[in-house]
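Troubleshooting: if your tokenizer reports a length mismatch, compare your output against this known-good record of 123 residues.
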Amino acid sequence: QLQLVESGGGLVQPGGSLKLSCAASGFTLDYYTMGWFRQAPGKEREGVSCISSSTGSINYADSVWGRFTLSVDNAKKMVYLQMNSLKPEDTAIYYCAAVRGRAGLEYSLYAYWGQGTQVTVSS
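Known-good structure output:
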């Protein structure tokens, strides 16, 4: 069955970097939109970035524009999120998600989710 497994979270100081990975299995990425989302305590889940495998177009939330970079290795079925210049407000559980077809950063559109990985930005 379709499965997503995130890794790479951890504790980092403000201004630091982390790279999250999402391993996909049970499907090919070709016809799916892959997204990264995050949820901080007491807040609603929000979209961070997504890529449409059919068009290659990548979207970013305004809050991470210029700091985060999404990339995909279709052969390895891996999706990455490089996070630079991290801020305390980036602290959240980060989720990888997938949906067949096109989608944006609205989390309710995504059908498949990983278990999440914790990112904590603190000095």
